[in-house]
């Protein structure tokens, strides 16, 4: 995936997180028409360096965040639940504490109490065991 596509995909994650292009435009301090040209469903312009940094600042993301591919939270959640199911199938009596921990994490996740970053980190830890 090229850098233009990565910036667009990450921008769309942010657009979705605030409820659409109009709210996104307000958050970054630009007009909706201008914003739709690079953040809408059918963009006609790419996201340049200046606008990328403005988006990162508006969303309090670190410098360069828009340039690194980020996965959708729903995809991370599905992967987490799949890993959870695999672990539960292998649990023995000796691992009941571990299972209780995993169930607690799953409950927190389903209630939206885990951030996308935390879900990604937990998924990475679980993947290490596979």
Automatic annotation (TrEMBL):
Name the record gives this protein: Uncharacterized protein
Source organism: Acinetobacter populi
């Amino acid at each position: 995936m090229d850098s233009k596509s990565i910036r667009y995909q990450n921008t769309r994650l942010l657009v979705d997180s605030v409820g659409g292009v109009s709210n996104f435009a307000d958050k970054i301090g630009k007009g909706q028409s201008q914003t739709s040209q690079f953040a809408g469903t059918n963009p006609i312009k790419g996201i340049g360096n200046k606008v990328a940094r403005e988006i990162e600042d508006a969303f309090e993301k670190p410098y360069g965040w828009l340039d690194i591919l980020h996965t959708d939270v729903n995809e991370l959640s599905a992967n987490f639940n799949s890993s959870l199911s695999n672990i539960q199938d292998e649990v023995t009596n000796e691992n009941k504490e571990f299972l209780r921990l995993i169930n607690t994490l799953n409950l927190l996740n389903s209630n939206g109490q885990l951030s996308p970053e935390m879900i990604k980190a937990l998924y990475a830890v679980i993947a290490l065991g596979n």
